[in-house]
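Dear support,

Our group has been running a series of protein-ligand predictions, and this particular one with BIS(adenosine)-5'-pentaphosphate is the one our PI (initials K.S.) wants archived with full inputs and outputs. We had some confusion internally about which version of the output was final, so please treat the block below as the authoritative record. The input we submitted was:
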Amino acid sequence: MIILGPPGAGKGTQCERLVETFGLVQLSTGEMLRAEVKSGSELGQTAKEIMDAGELVPDDLIISMISSQIDQQSEAKGVILDGFPRTTAQAEALDVMLSEKSLSMDHVVQLEVDEDAIVERLSGRFSCANCGAGYHDTFSPPAEEGKCDKCGHTEFSRRSDDNPETVRSRLVAYREQTAPILPFYQDKGVLQSVDGMGGMEEVFDQIKEIVAGG
Ligand code: AP5
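Confirmed final output from the archive:
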């Protein structure tokens, strides 16, 4: 399945729940790129500047990265694509990739969230520096302040692209380059929209129904 939505819509948050509940594998192009940046690879160096500007990394780099990741998941029950595809060229390349690999697409879930909520969600987001568990200052702080619920680590980090200026550019990139792919999936009859404005569990209940429905 694909999970689509603007920056901060809750894609990663819902993927965590889908992985736990349905045993699916999450493939997040954003996470892959951040790992490349951290490793200092050539791709990471190219990507860092683009990501910090809130723009999209070139299609050819993304398509070959995700294709090799999908190839490594032959044993998986199913895969959730988080943050991919993000352009018409990526959506078309995914179609070709799936047919070449004899794979099918069951669901394309679109999270709908107001822009004001996005800014609030991204400005309060942080994650555990050790295990990557996601938190929010207001909406999902750790049970014990300063300590990760999952691994007990006490250091956290914030993403360098979550500052207001970059968030504005990321929203423009979403509106201009990603939202136009929605009709592509609507025409195929696989697009399902979910109201992403409720609480995290309310949103998950809607997605669970879609996935459990087959
Ligand atoms: P990426 O990492 O994919 O970022 P994004 O799409 O901007 O999405 P986010 O990860 O910021 O948000 P999210 O929807 O996962 O929200 P979350 O669940 O964390 O991409 C980063 C960059 O990489 C791009 O800008 C681009 O440069 C590059 N890139 C990546 N993929 C690419 C591609 N395919 N092509 C080209 N370039 C690519 O939630 C946010 C916060 O809100 C959290 O704190 C959470 O706790 C809270 N929250 C979540 N749900 C709720 C709720 N229901 N109520 C209240 N709070 C909530």
